């Protein structure tokens, strides 16, 4: 008889439709690796899935894609990963391996990609299955809690290293002081850029944290004049780059005229609506490159893990709550209240 485990499952489309269910522990066959899960970070997309706003997931599916743990079984085709390895994993579970994107290992763009926690059972369970190619070993000094943040951090590395080549002398705006915005901030400060972090009044405590994490200027756009700040900091030229982690159209349109001509705007945050009224006139007149940044790919992960391991990311400041797996609903409620930064679910408390 197969061994059983618990998992947090989205059972059907629509609001909530979430259950804490019994399911079989998956078997590690072929190139697959079975991981005993230590921690899973709750992502904004998990909340969208909970609310029924995210069309991506297959149902039923166990959620969770930001995780860490220990290898407990490997398939017969696994070559390098060993039992007992401390690991994290990319979210890519299957790809076609035939398209142009796969040939360049840009798995985030494969049209046939299936992801962990969206189309394949994820890590909000006692165990999760991953493919060997997606596995990354953890450096000795990196905690399981820290490693569970490597996926969102890799998304930010993708935006800053691959999609825009952030440089030391750049003056930038990061919009939205949620977890993604704060990760972007810490990467930018590690590189040495000058950062203006923006938010709204209800983000006061997050903007305070941003200041603590190294933001050069923080701006509450409901109370302060962002244009005036940018004018002073850039001698009227405008910022070199903008990274939007808010998915808030007014913020995006307010920042476009504050960019240096031929600047780069990187869209990281997702908008609520598919179609939006963008200030295209400014994009044209200022020759702005407006770039989308989707998820992460294998090139981003070693950098993310290196940043975590060397202390460039303030792990303890980012994780504000932890809950055992069976208290997943309380954990989701805490995220939805909007006062926490990163909330972690502990899958096997006391076993690591």
Automatic annotation (TrEMBL):
Which key words are in the record? Metal-binding, Oxidoreductase, Zinc
Instruction: Specify the domain of life of the species encoding this protein.
Output: Bacteria
GO MF terms, alphabetically ordered: oxidoreductase activity; zinc ion binding
Q: Which cofactor does it need?
A: Zn(2+)
Check the record and name the PROSITE patterns matching this protein: ADH_ZINC (PS00059)
Q: Which is one Pfam family of this protein? A: ADH_N
The segment(s) forming the Enoyl reductase (ER) domain are 14-345
The family classification in the record reads: Belongs to the zinc-containing alcohol dehydrogenase family.
Protein's recorded name: Chlorophyll synthesis pathway protein BchC
